[in-house]
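Quick one: structure for this chain?
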Amino acid sequence: MQNILNSPFITEMCEITSNMYRLGWNERNGGNISLLLDEAELAPYLDTDAVLRRIPTGFDAPSLEGRFFLVTGTGKYFRRVAADPENTLGIVRLADGGRTAELLWGYSDGGKFTSEFPAHMMSHMARLAVDPENRVVMHCHPTNTLAMNYIHPLDDRSFTRTLWQMCTECIVVFPEGVGVLPWMVCGNNEIGAATAEKMKLYRTVVWGMHGIYCAGKSMEETFGLVETVEKAAQIFILTAGKPRINTIRDCELRALAEAFGVEYRRDFLD
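Got it. Here's what it folds into:
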């Protein structure tokens, strides 16, 4: 077996979590990531028949039976992932209709996956039904996106339209828009189900006064999606309360989407 610490998925997870911490998106033990892996990716590094322990998940996920996930651990700091991946990360396989996670590697201190594991798995199920290439769910607390929650209406259409107006690339990067949830208690099945419902339409879901959930085909794509939303929110915060003498008009947003050939939420524009 090759050393799993040299695998591309562990290496990339270490790099991404370090960058997210550096950018201030994941303070303390805030935020979490899950990456769907194929057995063929794991085979050179891991004996998938060797189960270290079985962890109840507290929910059903029959469509994810037998699927493998690399998941950040509960209570773990992103700034520590690169230094101690075997403690801060874990690889699990879902069994028993998703009610059990079989630990194959990681959580070396006896810990387990993030408390928001149900929300991640529900989001994976929702996104895989829309896009079979979806592999990543990423949750973080980007400062400007969070600040925007306090001074902007929390509904899908107006939040999306404002973000689109902040930066030319936005309607191209997330043409489907963003979903927005009101404040909810985190770490339970209720917020997981609400997030998954939004994930049927969007790759980005804002948790009111909490943070953001993003999904994508790769770690890099998903990181870039968060990055773009956060940049737009930063521009909004920097210009909030000041007279706006210029903006990207709806007709220009339509022209952008059509020029780049993306399907966008036409009903989100006037």
